[in-house]
Design brief:
With about 80 residues, this protein is an alpha+beta fold. The protein has two helices and two strands, in the order ββαα. Strands 1-2 form a two-stranded antiparallel sheet. A hairpin with a 2-residue loop joins strand 1 and strand 2.
Length: about 80
């Protein structure tokens, strides 16, 4: 089985904290939480109801656009 996601990776920012009564609630910044939700939806759509069996091997490849500051140095 091969899963391909056409979505640009987002860096994991540090979690934010909010006081709630005596406790603290940690949450991801909006950009990160939206990315995680989109990736989960894409995975559920492609995975569907196929159960996994046997050994599992995971290979990850990330591709992203060249940043504008890096491309100016190369030119």
């Amino acid at each position: 089985m091969k899963l391909t996601f056409d979505i640009e990776p987002v860096e994991q920012a540090r979690p934010r904290a909010t006081r709630m009564g005596r406790g603290i609630r940690l949450y991801d910044p909006k950009k990160v939480s939206v990315y995680k939700k989109q990736l989960a939806m894409m995975c559920k759509f492609q995975y569907k109801d196929q159960p996994l069996s046997g050994q599992l091997t995971v290979n990850l490849k990330f591709y992203r656009h060249v940043q504008s500051s890096v491309s100016k140095k190369r030119a």
